[in-house]
Design goal:
2 domains; alpha/beta; 11 strands; Amidase signature (AS) enzymes
């Protein structure tokens, strides 16, 4: 059983396809692992044991009947609790949707089921994906498997922690300002934010519609590519979906050759405020790229210094609009409806009881930024900055194939350290936010442990829109070089739970 849970997704699928393992055996092994360790980690909010086993039995029946199996058939997956799943609780980490059973599947959920991926359950997250530590969940924080007293990142900390604790070989996340990449960095896993519009948002509960993007989380670059291919592609149900084929991500992940590529180091994503160990491991990664045959140059993107301020006007403004639907009239929690109160009073009481502090903070900020007399000064100005950041990226990609930076300025910080300091918490996303504002693709993968605390450090790779395959090409090359150097994957150094 221990051996089963430590297989990669690609290895697991191969063993199921060959008959060496059954999908039921693999699913039962992961369910047993969840039962053994998740009380300590708290990666999951809901385990769909019966549904997972039913999916696994269906895969085994297909194989027995000689039907072809897809590249991920029978592989278990942990799904961030922001994707609607028919008949399975979807809370978005909020009390306001506690107990809600969606009547439909998100497009991503449908595609996973069509690919015969076994969905184990829903993972913990910051409420409505607002946060960088998974401490804003209404259902309690998740621990980092490397050190349970530290944060696993956010908002998708549950998905990243499930991977790092071997409760699932694959996971699904969403990235609005870094919520796939930052958890990947601090847990020693791989996370990819695809090009905006590359993965359908239909059925993904909205936080900030122009920034939100679903994407793959895994323990290896190839596993992330296989999942990316399964969930990506055009969806007519999503008006922001790109009508273009999925880039050749799996082929790129299998090649992993960076010879002749030009790679830019972003000058503005480093320097003061970055942990010394993070900078050290990043510099080592740049040297590895040189050794692999890439040309490395420094690139300046001057507008990046304004990205954090622009993001925290645009994202709250869009969240203020999107969360207006939670009015106690249609679905979810309802408070104070005793026949004596107006609809407005019931809505106010429900939102007071159902939304957490960070969600309320962002709704208030966004509503103010959109209000009459302030719209142009705040939201309008932030959108202009967004355009400047996009132009900086476009200029950079005229001379380089990809950009690189640290994924986060620091390693995982202790639980509770920044809960009462929103500005310090927001700075966690300093390196990841520019990508979301421009709609580009980006990946985080492990590049070592910081010498100060022995915790994982992430390398961020950024590619132009619709060139997601470049992430996998570079990521696979760096991953192979580091595994050869270390003698094993980084996660093998994590403490045993």
């Amino acid at each position: 059983m221990t051996d089963i849970i430590r297989l990669t997704a690609a290895q697991t699928a191969e063993k199921i396809a060959s008959g060496e393992l059954t999908a039921v055996e693999v699913t039962e092994a992961h369910l047993a692992r969840i039962e053994a360790v998740d009380e300590k980690v708290h990666a999951f909010l809901h385990i769909d044991r019966e549904g997972a086993l039913a999916q696994a039995r269906a895969v085994d029946a297909k194989r027995a009947a000689g039907e072809p199996l897809g590249p991920l058939a029978g592989v278990p997956l942990a799904m961030k609790d922001i994707f609607t799943t028919e008949g399975v609780p979807t809370t978005v980490g909020s009390k306001i949707l506690e107990g809600w059973l969606p009547p439909y599947d998100s497009t991503v959920t449908k595609r996973l089921k069509a690919a015969d991926v076994v969905i184990l359950g829903k993972t913990n997250m910051d409420e409505f994906a607002m946060g960088s530590s998974t401490e804003n969940s209404a259902y309690g924080p998740t621990g980092n498997p490397w050190d349970l007293t530290r944060i696993p990142g956010g908002s998708g900390g549950g998905s990243a922690a499930a991977l790092a604790s071997y409760q699932a070989p694959l996971a699904l996340g969403t990235d609005t300002g870094g919520s796939i990449r930052q958890p990947a960095a601090v847990t020693g896993t791989v996370g990819v934010k695809p090009t905006y519009g590359g993965v359908s948002r239909y059925g993904m509960v909205a936080f900030s519609s122009s920034l939100d993007q679903g994407g793959p989380c895994a323990r290896t670059v190839l596993d992330a590519a296989l999942l990316h291919e399964a969930i990506g592609g055009h969806d007519p149900l999503d008006s922001t979906s790109i009508d273009a084929p999925v880039p050749p991500v799996v082929e790129a992940a299998r090649s992993g050759d960076v010879r002749g590529m030009r790679i830019g180091v972003v000058k503005e994503l480093g320097g003061d405020g970055y942990q010394a160990g993070v900078v050290q491991r990043f510099d080592e990664s740049v040297e590895v790229l040189r050794e692999l045959g890439a040309e490395v140059v420094e690139i300046s993107c001057p507008s990046f210094v304004y990205a954090l301020a622009a993001y925290y006007l645009i994202a709250p403004s869009e969240c203020s609009s999107n969360l207006a639907r939670f009015d106690a009239m249609r679905y979810g929690m309802r408070v104070g409806d005793d026949g004596t109160r107006s609809a407005e009073d019931v809505t106010a009481l429900t939102r007071e009881a159902g939304f957490g502090a960070e969600v309320k903070r962002r709704i208030i900020l966004g509503t103010y930024a959109l209000s009459s007399g302030y719209y142009d000064a705040y939201y309008g100005s932030a959108q202009k900055v967004r355009t400047l950041i996009t132009r900086d990226f476009e200029k950079a990609f005229e001379s380089v194939d990809v950009l690189v930076s640290p994924t986060t300025p620091t390693t995982a910080f202790p639980l509770g350290e920044r809960v009462d300091d929103p500005l310090a918490m927001y700075l966690v996303d300093l390196c990841t936010i520019p990508v979301n504002l421009a709609g580009n693709a980006a990946m985080s993968l492990p590049c070592g442990l910081a010498p100060e605390d022995g915790l994982p450090v992430g390398l961020q790779i950024i590619a132009p829109a619709l060139k997601d395959d470049r992430l996998y090409r570079v990521g696979a090359a760096v991953e192979a070089a580091f595994v050869k150097k270390w003698g094993h994957p980084l996660l093998e150094e994590a403490p045993q739970l």
